[in-house]
Amino acid sequence: MRVAFSTDLHYDVNHLTASDYFAAQADYFQQHGISVYVLGGDQYNDFQKTVQFVDDFQSFLGTAVKLYFIAGNHDMVSGVTYGELESFQHPAYLHHRVVTLPGTSYALVGNNGWYDYTLAPLGQDKTADEYTRWKKAFWIDSAIDSPLSDQERMDRVLDQVRSDLAQAATAGGRILFVDHFVPRRDFLIYAGDRPYWNMATALMGSRRLGDLLAATPAVDTVVFGHLHHRDPPLLVDGQRYLHTPLGYGLKRAWEWQSHDFLTEWKHTLMVRDIPEK
């Protein structure tokens, strides 16, 4: 079985009509034997548009490819509350779920994720209150419904992930884990001359999530996005970390390596070959 992942497609920000690419993407899946496709967040700046996109794409693909998705911070900006994100029921929604991949000893475990400021630069000497005030003043996430503090929200994420990993590991299989936010400091770039960005790194993810994943031997692969730069696969103690988000193809923020969405999509697709039992 071949499982493919994409993150940070940003169809609306990139001024793209997703359905224009359905046929070409379906052909690519067929040609490369991909039967499961997981979207790792930031499809649209509106959760309802993301759900409609997933429904439309799954309808186009039929039974040839099974879609799953989680929400990134951009998907959370509009069209959904925190409570709805936590309780939403949909066959493709992978948040806080364990999905066994048929005919294999692998399971998908997904979580939208969050952050707790533990990836901020060492020695920056900022308090949690200072990061929170900065976020509310400057960051898109200030529009996201959140009845909890960022630390409390991340605590809930960790409880969910811990439970889901235990469930998947108990079944004796290997785990493909996907969330939107960054789990390890290895992927952050810190710049002393860019105080705005150094503040933003606090909102990128959680070192505590990385520690939990590293302490779970059943985790085979971790896929995430959020940072709009691309990294080679990182192997740490037998675990594979994949991070090649598609990102923005805009004049004001050009992050692509070509001028064609489909080319970028193919180049950033993360594929894992899963052995059958």
From TrEMBL:
Residues 1-229 form the Calcineurin-like phosphoesterase domain. Gene3D superfamilies: 3.60.21.10. CDD domains: MPP_superfamily. It holds the Pfam family Metallophos. It comes from the Bacteria. SUPFAM superfamilies: Metallo-dependent phosphatases. InterPro entries: Calcineurin-like_PHP, Metallo-depent_PP-like, Phosphoesterase_putative. This is Calcineurin-like phosphoesterase domain-containing protein. It comes from Schleiferilactobacillus shenzhenensis LY-73.
